[in-house]
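Hey, sorry to bother you again with one of my protein questions. I've been staring at a protein lately and its backbone has me curious. I owe you a coffee for this, so here goes:
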Amino acid sequence: MSEAGTKRRRARVGAYALWQLRDYAKDRGVPTFIVALLSGYLGLSPIIERMPTRADEVPAGVLARFGSAEAVYAARMLDFNHAFLRGILGTIVFVGALFAMNGIVANDRKQGFYRFLFAKPMTPARYYGQAFFVHWAGFVAVMIVLGLVYGALIWPVLSRPLILVIALMFVAYAGIAFLLSAAARWDWMSLVAVTVASTFLWARYGESTHPLARLLVLLPPLHRADEVYASVSGVPMYASGAPTVIPWSLLAWLAGYGAVCFAAGLVVLRYRRLAIV
């Protein structure tokens, strides 16, 4: 009887996933889509309008080098995608992770909703851990839709490596935010502070030989995140002409850091009372 009761309790926790997905789509997914779409439009439309598409708009020397206006346009769009992935995509992923994790635990604690959520036999670690994965899946779905829109209006960019990079970089940011939301009230402000501090300290002291510089391993090297996004653009490295390769070790470090933070957040939820503000 006890075993059957345990199975029923676990099943009920899983049933919350649909509600969590609905809440993500309404409160976080739609804002993520709108902000990303506006950011892309404002950043890309002036450049796209200046892109030559006809032979008479392309300088003769450039046309002779590539052979056709279409080839010139394709080459320039590859460079354009490289700039977009390196510069704008990282901001979209960060904002998407911020929206997805903002108040994921802290809001229920501050507003007292945890009293109703956990009146039934359900553990906070399991409930919020499930919410993390639901929000992760929702974010990846939003990014796939945005990639399809980008490909239809500008140039194909969506690929399995790009989706994998986006999913893992989300973990890098969202894991930190999840831990902060489980442990503190000002989770989104804390995430911004950690990101800014990590980027600045690694860029400033990453090459230092001072013994205290070793403490930087406590922070993720977010100052190199643009290298990860640029690696899936398909544009060869300018110095050597060799094709770009995804820096898997760097990506593993960033995503692994976020995964460790997520696990630490589960530990906090297991042993910390939600009633403590």
